[in-house]
Design goal:
By secondary structure, this protein is an alpha/beta fold. Helix content is about 40%, strand content about 10%. It is globular and about 50 Å long. It binds phosphoric acid mono(formamide)ester and norvaline. The site of phosphoric acid mono(formamide)ester (CP) has 8 residues, from helix 2.
Amino acid sequence: MTSSFTGRSFLKLLDFSRDEILYLIDLSAKFKALKRNGVLHRYLTGKNIVLIFEKTSTRTRCAFEVAASDLGMGSTYLAPGSSQLGNKESVADTARVLGSMYDGIEYRGFAQSIVDELAKYAECPVFNGLTDEFHPTQMIADMLTVQECFPEGFAGLKLAFFGDARNNVANSLMVVSAKLGIDYVACGPSERMPDESLVETCRAIAEQNGCTITLTDDVSEAATDANIIYTDIWLSMGEDESLWKARIDELCPYRVTSDIMEMTAADSIFMHCLPSFHNTDTAIGAKIAKEFGIDELEVTDEVFESTSSVVFQEAENRLHSIKAIMYATLSTEDPISNEEI
Ligand code: CP
Ligand code: NVA
């Protein structure tokens, strides 16, 4: 028996309905329970996935590899610059070759148009592991985390994103919030606000789901009564390092601090997709501290390490949600039942 997911690519959340997103979140929770209870779930034995990474990764790569292994699948990792893609072979040719050998293709890279083209030419589902525009697998993990922290439901929650509100993670949060009925606030300078056309699309979806999309440079307006405070690094992969100075100048007022957390609703949480520059324990963090005299970038170490911070729960949920996405799209069986948990 096939489900509405069977054979579909996972390129961006705009392609999925509210109910489909809710289904994936619930399926992720089921896979988390299976893993926690030590129940084997090798439901995709005999299938294979190829993981194309044109940018670096810790969480996404490891989540795909462990998810594939737990599901009984084989996986091949293609590191940045290690395949013919881009240099000697076109996206369309690569898609046709890999699509003939594998049951699924994961792609992390640059333009959204590349992952869209892979999906157009490959005869198997393609999963977007992050592009410059969207990071949709991250969103299923994030919303599983939100559901775990706020089991009473998504409707009526307020999520405020601080910082580079036009990056892939912020764009995706705006989409998923609109789909799930969460009031979304993008807080940052006007130059770092999302594209108008995406805002318009999301506002139309939000209206149907009884929630709002707000763009503001007012930190207090964004933080007041928020249930979820979210931030991401100020310079995304693929952006030129020479932009650090300008980005720091623009975004310092939007760093997530304890003062911001104090304005939020009771029991609010702090989220971050990671990696994060919350101290100087990284090569880039140390370099920035030396050049610009700043020890913490998008979030203070105090907030990152506070009891409100759910960032490592969020990171673990990448595994369970990627498993759900692969299972839903690659399986031809009935969805797993509660009895197995
Ligand atoms: N959040 C996330 O995608 O992390 P990686 O870059 O480590 O995959
Ligand atoms: N916006 C970040 C997300 C990393 C998971 C980047 O693209 O580098």
